[in-house]
Design goal:
Distance between the termini: 37 Å
Strand content: 5-15%
Shape: globular
Largest sheet: 2 strands, antiparallel
Strand order of the largest sheet: 1-2
Number of domains: 1
Order of helices and strands: EEHHH
Structural class: mainly alpha
Helix content: 40-55%
Radius of gyration: 12 Å
Number of strands: 2
């Protein structure tokens, strides 16, 4: 397992726990697995798969970051 970090952290806000900084695909997998409010969205599924692949070294970590950002936007849009 490779531990990769992103060029820039992603700030996310998941309800009452406040804002958190996610620094790479491994941390993103923790959020997607344990804290994500909607585990059925298209972008959630794509982000989870991309982060798993980045952690395993099969995908560029920055591609996983893009997918994670899309999943976070999906959550924000759903709560508006």
């Amino acid at each position: 397992m490779l531990i990769n970090t992103w060029s820039r952290p992603v700030q996310i806000e998941l309800g009452p726990s406040g804002s958190r900084s996610v620094n790479g695909p491994f941390e993103a997998m923790i959020y997607l697995t344990d804290l994500w409010p909607n585990r059925s969205g298209l972008h959630f599924i794509r982000a989870r798969n991309a982060c798993k692949a980045a952690v395993a070294g099969r995908k560029n970590p920055e591609d996983a970051r893009s997918e994670f950002l899309a999943a976070a936007k999906e959550i924000q849009d759903a709560t508006r």
